[in-house]
Amino acid sequence: MPDQEPPAGTTSFGRFAVTPSERRQRIRRVFAAVAPRYDLMNDLMSFAIHRWWKRRLARRCADCSGLVVDLASGTGDVAALLRGPGRRVVACDPSLPMMEVGRRRHADVAWCAGEAERLPFADGSVDLLVISFGLRNATDLDRALDEIRRTLRPGGRFVCLEFSRPAAWLAPFYDLYSRLAIPRLGAAVAGEPEAYDYLVESIRRFPDQATLGRRMAAAGFASVRWENLSFGIACLHFGERAA
Questions:
Q1: CATH class of domain segment(s) 11-168+197-241
Q2: Which pLDDT value is given to residue 84?
């Protein structure tokens, strides 16, 4: 279950209540610190299953064309999967160190700096916007959803891949693994145990499948649905901007 909400006027960073601006700065420091070994850590933490989840996302978007934005793109692995005929793929991320790693790996992808609450795209200009394991890092989730909807053209699609709530039989084992193993992996491989402690807490605090679906609908998305992956450890949410 999610932890208790922070006091009014603050937001959460891991187990701590901080101001929104402080949260934003701390998250930037987290991703700057882990950028060189971010993909390796993802492989170790998920036993490389995150790559299958991301390929599933790409397959669900196979029929889309036009301007495709991969928000919170990180090192651009999802942006690379989304390349194809009839598409212009733009990787957008607030972390310059993460984008520097991504540019070296995917030189044929366009890159721009931007965060979910203030997207650098015109109203109704995007045909498909995806975000993978980045929505929970938004300081203001509802504002981020409003911004995403604003940038989509009528009929444009939004797909979110994010950690969610696993099935009841799996939850105790998953919780034990995430609390004990992931920060230790972060310390051993990336040298940043506190960063991965934050990532674990951000997963715990993020809305479950149904709650995120309701907040997407409240933000004006139509045809909202979701698809559990790996018994709910991760989840794909889908929505459209109404025509």
A1: alpha beta
A2: 93
